[in-house]
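Course assignment 3, question 2. Fill in each field.
Student: A.L.
Task: Predict the tertiary structure for the chain below.
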Amino acid sequence: MAEEVLSQSEIDALLSAISTGEMDAEELKEEEKERKVRVYDFKRALRFSKDQVRSLSRIHENFARLLTTYFSAKLRTYVNISVASVDQVPYEEFIRSIPKMTILNIFSLPPLNGRILFEINPNIAYTMLDRVLGGSGASVNKVENLTEIETTIMSQLFEHAADNLKEAWSSIVDVDPMMEEFEVNPQFLQMVSPNETVVVISLNTTIGDSSGMINICIPHVVLEPIIPKLSVHYWMQNQQPKESKPEEYQALSKSIKKTTIEAKAILGEADISIEEFLHLNRNDVIQLDQLISEPMLLCIDEEPKFYVQPGKKRKKMAVQILEEIKRGEDDDDE
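Answer field:
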């Protein structure tokens, strides 16, 4: 243990206080003894270092962002999910802290051993269910009498949400989350022994006007094989930028490149009356508002994008781009 080194002035002040009677040497000894005594609760054994807890927090901050994107698209409403806290507690204490009737999803994470638990506050779960069924997002807590259809919809919703866990954990280990159970009463669950240390990640969740918590309970037995990978050293080594782009990005780029757009070069414009239009004959000339010496506009899907000049290429009419029209630029020719 590191010892505090006193400066010469502090030593002189301390000796002076003892010699004048302002401070008792015996009291200093007693105080030093008291400092060495620390209360330790063996039922709340801390099996993860602060460094490892911070790594778990970073992983699930990424997971929270992925969940926000997933639920925003699925529910088509405002969703915000963020990490509120990461704590290590005995399993029994976690079970006592959650409601007696709530939404519980148990997942296995092969190749890791053991199972993890997702606890979703009923207030949030029913808001999600109402949105999926086409409602406004009203929350009605009736966990005790879930119908078979409601149970199936909720199970599928959270099973697909857990797929994001695979991406969030990919920097540490490749897992394949699989839902094993859907339960509403925590007393029927016994994943590990009551005194087993578990990491509880609490996520603040807001969906529309409703808010609540999503708790992720990860037993020590699940994380034990990958504890060395939760160090800062390992984390920094594996945060190198990836050269290859994600498959989703490549697929999206490929689809965008196949999109057809309309490109139109405008020679000029003219305003005529209906009467003049009705009396048009062959060889009549309509004067445009565009001078020959001025560049033409090239519009992409009706939006002016370039100044161009006309010409020919391989005996076909073409235009040559002269200048790009910047966004927000005032254009009198539009």
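Instructor remarks: The beta strands are 79-90, 103-108, 115-120, 178-183, 197-207, 210-219, 263-266, 296-300, 303-313, 316-324. The chain has two domains: 44-241, 263-324.
Grade: pending
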